[in-house]
Amino acid sequence: MIFNCPNCALSLHKSASTWICENRHTFDIAKEGYINLLLPAKGQSKMAGDSADMIQARRAIHEAGIYEPLAATLYDVIREHIQTPTSALDIGCGEGYYSRYFQERMPSHHYFGIDISKAAVKTAAKQNTTIQYTVASAFRIPVESASVGIATRIFAPSDDAELHRILSSDGHYLEVGPSPNHLWELREALYDEPTPHAPHRVALNGFDLVQQGQCHYPFDLNNDQLKHLIAATPFSHKGHREKRVLLLQRNQIVVTMAFEWRLFKKLP
Model-level pTM greater than 0.70? Predict the structure, then answer.
């Protein structure tokens, strides 16, 4: 167990159908096996994070293999640098696609996942009962200090200081985001003047850059896959509405899948 109490930061232990700390703060285990450690925040919606509809769309595009080349690339990176069994935390895990992919190929690690979306964590927990998925914030991670050997953050926000705190003395952090031309064809279809994604950082305070790379490939989408991909991304509500209606009528489109990744190691 790497999780701690979000109220007092003491270690959590499983007791019957709850998790409990020494201060007697208790958290019920859902029937799917996940736990909710997200403390209510002033002004925060009860439906924080991605909606159930967006989560199901992402599950559909993952099952279609649209992101599998990226998952395979990231698996190779982790396998090369992390040989000793350790705790692996998937930050912003969504419906659990990447953590499941890694566990199937590297079962010696101990896998955990957090996401602010209850719908996402519920879906992830249904798919895999051996990975501990938890509803939690990536900006106040309820995880013991120095307890994580490898943290992954794939298309999700987080707090750098929290990342440094939770990683072990020789821990690694894998950060993944879109390259400038990711899904460029959809941008061209939805915007009068499409703009590329901004460049990603190459330096991180408290970390050493170990390795970086890119993963680019085309993917030929059919209409169902196109609809799911748009529903799973901000394109579902961004861009020109009329252009989106026309785009969704297309039977086929080849899109550019383009990603950048950087592997960091925690400095003493």
Answer: yes
